[in-house]
Write a structure and sequence with these properties.
alpha/beta; binds NADPH dihydro-nicotinamide-adenine-dinucleotide phosphate; gluconate utilization; Single alpha-helices involved in coiled-coils or other helix-helix interfaces; NADP binding; 9 strands; Rossmann fold; globular; two-stranded antiparallel sheet; pentose shunt; N-(1-d-carboxylethyl)-l-norvaline Dehydrogenase, domain 2; 56% helix; 7-stranded mixed β-sheet
Length: 486
């Protein structure tokens, strides 16, 4: 009798085919399926011989090829394609089987899908996977949601294919929480990814515009930074990218790439969720808006024309006297802004967990981000330690270790933000992160004025510093008497 598959993967594009190979390399028999069969054939042609796959042409064949209780991973385009694949699977699978969505699904979709699928007696796990093409193949960071029971069955397989942290060899996979928790955490991982990429880009921009450095020269600086606190996958690939020369022109490829950043949506979802939950996630928001600004072609064209006509294109040109000190200012601003982005992202996870009743362990979350995923960094070992010291830590930057780092960065950061502002170099995340810090530490924000303006035009009431209660001033009466609201 033909051996049945331990697990199946649907979707043979980059992520699904690599994930399937990863399972096979780890000793699992894997059934594979793709809507367009040619893609499955292509995978078989390239990897079939070594991988021990069971190729299937129809979803019915795919389901029939799985050992019971069946475990089917869906790795297709997020949104409607994922819905239709899950709907078709529900028709073919049996109670007790598990459908695992490993795509970048919106967590609220996952909550909805889990309800629908479990109502049919099947199990559903929304599972975040990060690491891109290479991670899927060699070991991604895996963020599964769903029930503890599903994790008992699925967890060992996922932990086996997950990345292992270099510090202790632990798998970068943990049961994040019920229903949409895994996709929620993956979404915020991506939001932090946006902020991390933006701060690296701001550093690159300042270095080229202020010091006139070439891409390979900036790569040398980043390579040095990668030996210290900033050691991370994103800095590492930036070094490679900045050194890469276009084969046709011999020029750095980065200089030839259009400055218009695209996005698939996870950053936007993070910001929308942050707004819904009222969590200030300014670094991620500015990073997302910066991508939007770069792609606002008509507006950019108009602004460039107007500024030229008004001779406003050049702000002051403060010279850089001490190049080494300046580069250190940039490094410190990058590091401090990164601490702020993580502070905000992790705060959003805390608030989301409360709202959606998930028991999310932030130390565990940081632990599984240490390897495999796009934001992997030495830094995450320090974040893990901070939450191990205090699992309830409400503000990462208030942890002793990170606060000391912020304190050290502060003069460099302020100097750099001032310099870039005077020079007219856009630094949306460097500057908004500094403002966030200045705001969150300020015992006297101007929100008192906003409250009283709201009371003036809308009778929205206010509270007072000097006594308890809720108050309203009768602004439209001649004596403007204050009344106590019940
Ligand atoms: N690329 C990355 O770095 C990462 C991607 N992800 C997520 O993983 C998932 C897969 O990503 P990726 O490998 O890049 O592939 P894509 O997101 O480009 O999706 C392509 C796959 O989806 C299938 N598909 C598209 N529409 C349908 C449909 N209507 N019904 C059934 N199948 C359909 C395609 O099948 P067909 O060949 O027939 O068109 C193909 O297998 C996505 O959800 C993505 O967001 C997660 C982490 C990282
Ligand atoms: O999930 C990922 C990595 O973790 C993907 O690479 C993600 O699609 C990248 O997002 P965007 O296309 O919006 O930049």
């Amino acid at each position: 009798m033909t051996q049945l598959a331990d697990i199946g993967v649907i979707g043979m594009a980059v992520m699904g085919s690599n994930l399937a190979q990863n399972f096979a390399r780890n000793g699992y028999k894997v059934a594979i399926y793709n809507r367009t069969y040619a893609r499955t054939q292509d995978v078989m042609e390239h990897y079939g011989a070594t991988a021990g796959f069971i190729p299937t042409e129809t979803l019915g064949d795919f389901v029939a090829a799985l050992e019971k209780p069946r475990c089917a991973i869906v790795m297709v385009k997020a949104g409607t394609p994922t819905d239709s694949t899950i709907d078709q699977l529900c028709e073919l699978m049996e109670p007790g089987d598990i459908i695992v969505d490993c795509g970048n699904s919106l967590f609220t979709d996952t909550i909805r899908r889990e309800r629908t699928v479990t109502a049919k007696g099947l199990n559903f796990v929304g599972c975040g996977v990060s690491g891109g093409e290479e991670g899927a193949l060699k070991g991604p960071a895996i963020m599964p949601g769903g029930t503890a029971e599903s994790y008992r069955r699925l967890g060992p397989m996922l932990e086996k294919i997950a990345a292992k942290a270099p510090e202790d060899g632990e798998p970068c996979c943990t049961h994040i929480g019920t229903d949409g928790a895994g996709h929620f955490v993956k979404m915020i991982h991506n939001g932090i990814e946006y902020a991390d990429m933006q701060v690296i880009s701001e550093a690159y921009d300042i270095l080229r515009k202020s010091l006139g450095l070439s891409a390979p020269e900036i790569a040398d600086i980043f390579e040095e930074w990668n030996q210290g606190d900033l050691d991370s996958y994103l800095i590492e690939i930036t070094v490679e990218v900045l050194r890469h020369l276009d084969q046709e022109t011999g020029r750095p490829l980065v200089d030839l790439v259009l400055d218009q950043a695209k996005q698939k949506g996870t950053g936007t979802w993070t910001v929308q969720t942050a707004l819904d939950l009222g969590v200030p996630t300014t670094g991620i928001a500015e990073a997302t808006f910066a991508r939007g600004l770069s792609s606002s072609l008509k507006q950019r064209e108009m602004a460039q024309l107007v500024c030229k006509a008004l001779s406003l294109e050049n702000a002051t040109h403060e010279p850089v006297n001490d190049k080494a000190a300046f580069i250190e200012d940039v490094r410190q601003a990058l590091y401090a802004s990164k601490i702020v982005a993580y502070t905000q992202g992790l705060n959003l996870i805390q608030v989301g967990a409360k709202e959606y009743h998930w028991d999310i362990d932030l130390g565990e979350t940081a632990r599984i981000w240490r390897a495999g995923c796009i934001i992997r960094a030495r830094f995450l070992e320090d974040v893990t330690r901070a939450y191990r010291r205090n699992p309830e830590l409400a503000l990462l930057l208030a942890d002793d270790y990170f606060f000391a780092k912020i304190r050290e960065a502060m003069p460099h950061w302020r100097r750099l933000v001032t310099f870039a502002t005077m020079r007219g170099i856009p630094i949306p995340v460097f500057s908004s992160s500094l403002s966030y810090l200045d705001g969150i530490r300020d015992p006297e924000l101007p929100a008192n004025l906003i409250q009283i303006q709201r009371d003036f035009f809308g009778a929205h009431t206010y509270q007072r510093r000097d006594k308890t209660g809720v108050f309203h001033t009768l602004w439209s009466t001649p004596d403007r008497r204050e009344v106590v609201e019940s």
